[in-house]
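ugh ok fine here u go
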Amino acid sequence: MIAAPRDQKVFASARLRFLAQGIEAFLTRELPQYFGPVLRERLAQEIVHLVDIQLPAREFLRPGQCVWNAISEQTRPDSPRRRLVPVVLTLTNEEDVRQLAEGVPMSQIASQATARLCCEAHQQGALLSMRDIGLLVWRDNATVSTLRQKWEDGHDQILPHPGSLQDFGSCVTHKAAIVRKAIYEKKDPRRVAAETRHSQRAVDHYLTDFNRVRTAYAKCPQMDFVCQTTGLSRNLVQQYVNLLQINEKKS
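structure:
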């Protein structure tokens, strides 16, 4: 099987954030026997046209804001029954412009804005991925991730997004923060849960897995041995070993 191009793999599903594609997905899921792809697309376009005519203008939106359909925090992005939530997001505001006028580096303001977008979506019951933000501000995922991590490092706080709250994607920032705070800074796990926006159960789970990996790795620093002993996946073991090596060097 020929692998899909990277851009297709990363951005194709983002089309579901828009109304017409959302309607097509609904018809495909709920009425697959009645509509073919051409009719589904045409019907979705007609419904969107009707909605555009009937809906009142969104006067409540302020300059610099937009509406975006983000993944509900109650469903995972890879769930077949994922649910989207319309959220109002502030791409830029008066404070951003004021800071720019005062000479604050744009990269710093972009980092603040990334944090603001994550928090605004979470307050409305949704989670923004770095791809979502990248599409809104025309930046690639890696750049947005760097901006997010810069804010998190500067504020010693984990922002809400699918990687941190749902373990979705390759993000390990939340694991690193939880391990560092609880194991190496010896903070109370309850405080760590609050600082990292995680449940107590999730924090305990991460710490248990980390300690299992640390014990097995100390006995035999071989990936196969650690994976077999802990029963964890190779990718997850590697994440914890990396955290172990980084923090043990510092201590």
